[in-house]
Write a sequence for this structure.
């Protein structure tokens, strides 16, 4: 395999007349390796985007959801599902950033093109493209209970009132997918009103259990709530 790669690199240099006439140096060699990757190595359907650079180096915090570290996940691009990739979701710019290894074994970071992504996952969280729901926000986290789904829109802003600037905490808006329609809701009462009168009393009672706070509801708690509402309709 190593001999084959050496031969391919040699062939690459012969195929790149624009580089062969240049002086040899670290940058030239790196460019040759990068073009080698493009021709013979990494999947260009996945490794296709804009190089990521820190946009606000002096700002406290980070623009990502939850944490700055890249997490194992997957991304759906067209008909291809790429598993075991490392991603981060920039909720300030609504971008998905991919971390991958280059030919030298170093880390590279690129912003994937939103228009090519149908969905992605970060750990146990799943995200779906719904770019027609909110202008400028293509991706929504989805809690899928079957007949009912809850969508979360995640955003983040910057506090510019004091220097150095700092990112706000993530902001989440909630939407219920029910009867082929998507309904926004902000409170327990608003959520309850999305169901027929016969179920509202039971749902309201269910959400009064100790420790239940809609603002801080976890993914598992939301899944349990959706499943409870489905069970009510099946009784």
């Amino acid at each position: 395999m190593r001999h084959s790669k050496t031969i391919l690199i040699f062939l690459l240099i012969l195929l790149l007349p624009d580089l062969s006439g240049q002086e040899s140096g670290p940058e030239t060699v790196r460019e040759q390796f990068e073009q080698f990757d493009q021709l013979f190595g990494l999947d260009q359907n996945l490794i296709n985007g804009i190089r990521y650079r820190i946009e606000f180096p002096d700002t406290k915090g980070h623009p990502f959801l939850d944490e700055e570290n890249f997490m194992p996940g997957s991304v759906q691009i067209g008909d291809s599902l790429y598993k075991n990739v490392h991603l981060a979701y920039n909720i300030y710019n609504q971008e998905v950033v991919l971390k991958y290894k280059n030919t030298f074994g170093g880390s590279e970071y690129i912003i994937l093109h939103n228009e090519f992504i149908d969905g992605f996952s970060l750990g146990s969280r799943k995200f779906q493209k719904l770019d027609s729901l909110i202008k400028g926000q293509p991706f929504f986290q989805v809690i899928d209970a079957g007949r009912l789904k809850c969508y979360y829109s995640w955003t983040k802003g910057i506090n510019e009132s004091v220097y150095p600037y700092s990112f706000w905490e993530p902001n989440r808006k909630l939407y219920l997918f029910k009867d082929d329609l998507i309904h926004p809701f902000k409170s327990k009462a608003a959520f309850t009103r999305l169901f027929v009168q016969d179920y509202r009393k039971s749902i309201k009672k269910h959400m009064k259990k100790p420790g239940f706070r809609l603002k801080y509801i976890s993914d598992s708690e939301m899944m349990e709530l959706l499943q409870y509402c489905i069970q009510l309709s099946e009784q």
Notes: Residues 1-41 form one domain. The chain is about 25% helix and 35% strand. Residues 219-234 form the longest helix (16 residues).
